[in-house]
Structures are given as structure tokens and as C-alpha cells.
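To whoever is covering the structure queue this week,

Two jobs came back overnight. Logging them here so there's a record in the thread.

Job A:
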Amino acid sequence: MDGLTYDEVGATAGVMPPGYHHVRARRIIGHGRADFERAADALLAGEVQRRAGARVELSKSPMRTGSRVTMRLGFGILSVRIPCLVVWAERTDTLAGFAYGTLPGHPERGEERFTLTLGPSDEVAFEIAAFSKPGRWFTRVGAPLGRLVQAWMTRRYLHAL
């Protein structure tokens, strides 16, 4: 896809590429159709990122393949602009989710996937898969801190729905 800062588009759906930091996390967030629908609406409207503390701008809502997502974390001159492109989005009766990839200016290079499933036992599961590596000078210098921030944001995302 045009403008992405990595080549392995879609790899969060399966085997993630070597040479990147990998994240996989899962949490049961509810039970039943109503919980699934409410969570799916929020997920595809960017609410996970907002509830986790990011300021979010979407080019299209609900998110779909080709949507641009621009997030900001921090305040004033200490805020970081985080531009992404949605490379996959889907919503069915039992699955909802999207994956976005990094665009130029993003502090990292890679992809992150957010998936909700409504299982046969009516459990609503929220899963996150990501691969990334530093994409800017300050994330290369501060790589250990970047991993801590990523783990912190993943926990916030998991609890956002």
C-alpha cells in the first residue's frame, strides 16, 4: 500500500516477520451479542485509542481499509504525531477489527491489529497483535523506553473496551 514504512503488510494476521518486536495480547471483555456489537462500534470508531489517552482523527468512520488515522500522544511541544493507514478492516456477525500500518512521521515502523470475536460460548474476546521497530532517531535512541510505552499502551487498549 502506498506510503507505508514497512513491507510486511498483513503479517499481523499470521506469522509475524523476524527483525521486529512482536506483541500478542488477549482479553475477554464481555459476553453476548449486545457486548460484541457495542464493542465493535467503539473499536471501529477509534474509541480504543481515545480511551487509552490518544487524540484521534479519522478520515472515515467507521474505519475501513484505506482510512487514515492520525493520533497524538503527549501535550504541547512534547506531543508526538502518529500517522497510520488502515490496511485491513472487517465486520461480520462474529468478527470485527482493523489493522493499521505506519506512515512516514510515525515514531515506529510496523503494523498493529485489533480484533474482536464473538465465540460459540458467547465470550467476546479482544485481541491485539503487533510488530514494530524504531522508525525515527528518538525511538532508536530510546528503544527500551519505547518498549515500555508500547506495553503500557497495549494494557490500556485491552482495558479500553
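Job B:
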Amino acid sequence: MRLLVHVCCAPCFVAPHKHLKMAQHEVWAFWYNPNIHPYLENQKRLQTLQDFLAQENIPSIIKDEYNLEEFLRKSAYREASRCRHCYYDRLKYTAIIAKKGKFDAFSTTLLYSKFQNHQLIKEIGQALAQDYGMKFYYEDFREYWKEGIKLSKQKKMYRQQYCGCIYSEKERYLGKKL
């Protein structure tokens, strides 16, 4: 299967990529993360991904945008439900690119993180697949969590300590959910 995988960061991609390749899928990485702030954090994550893609010769599509104002407009006064909007935006754009690129399916490394709302990601992915006449490839990549940590450390990847948005950064330092 020719699969376009939305990648939130290289450490979340390393183990799922390995297993998708072992399953004989043609895996392409897709970077689109306008939620990641501040700008230097966004660029560190992108550079780490680009280094990994080059090392492993992984084909990719990079949509490098820093849309702080748009992200904040969509999240303001909806901080508790910001992840729904964030998942939707990134998966919608992934579905659009997958359809234009004639991929068989699309997926996301968000399914790797034990900190994300897995059921919500699955629901949004399936709904967008139906809307765009695509297949959403669902796999619970969380089973590769420890392996991904080990591989990313072996590869000396930059490993961030929060999801990416300014609200998750605040939660990291204050230790409480909004």
C-alpha cells in the first residue's frame, strides 16, 4: 500500500515507520504542523525529521508553515477542545494531499503517542477518509512506544517534552491540564 503518514515529529515516526516498512508498505512522510510553537521549536522538530528522512532515504512532502495567528484564532476560548481542532486541521490537510498524490491511504504518527486522544484521532481520520473518498489507515502504534523511545535515543534525535502547542507547553511546566 502507498501510504502518506502525517508526521508530528521524528521520534514519533521512527518505530511506526520501521513496522510499516516491514509490512511492505510504501511509506511517505508528510510534515504539516502549524500548531507547534514557538517557532524555534517548530524548526528543531522539522530539522530532526529532515535529518531522519535523509538518513533513511524516506520520500516526503514538507509543508512548512508557521501560522501562529490562525492556530490561536481557532483555539482561543476553546482551549479544552483545542486538540479536536488541531487533529482535524492536520488530518484534513493530510487527506487532501493523499488524494491529490494518488496515495492508497493516509495515517498519522499521532496514533503513536500515549498522550493523545486515540479514539478521537481515529474518529476524525475515518470521517475525513469518507469525506475525501480516501482510506484512513488505522493502527495502534502505541505498542511501539518503548521501541520508538529507544530508537530515537540511539539516533540521538531531538526529543521534545510537550505535544507542540503553547497550551501543551504550559501544561508541561505547570503539570495540569487546561
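Note for Job B: Residues 19 and 27 are 10 Å apart (CA to CA).

Please reply-all if you pick these up so we don't duplicate work.
Q.
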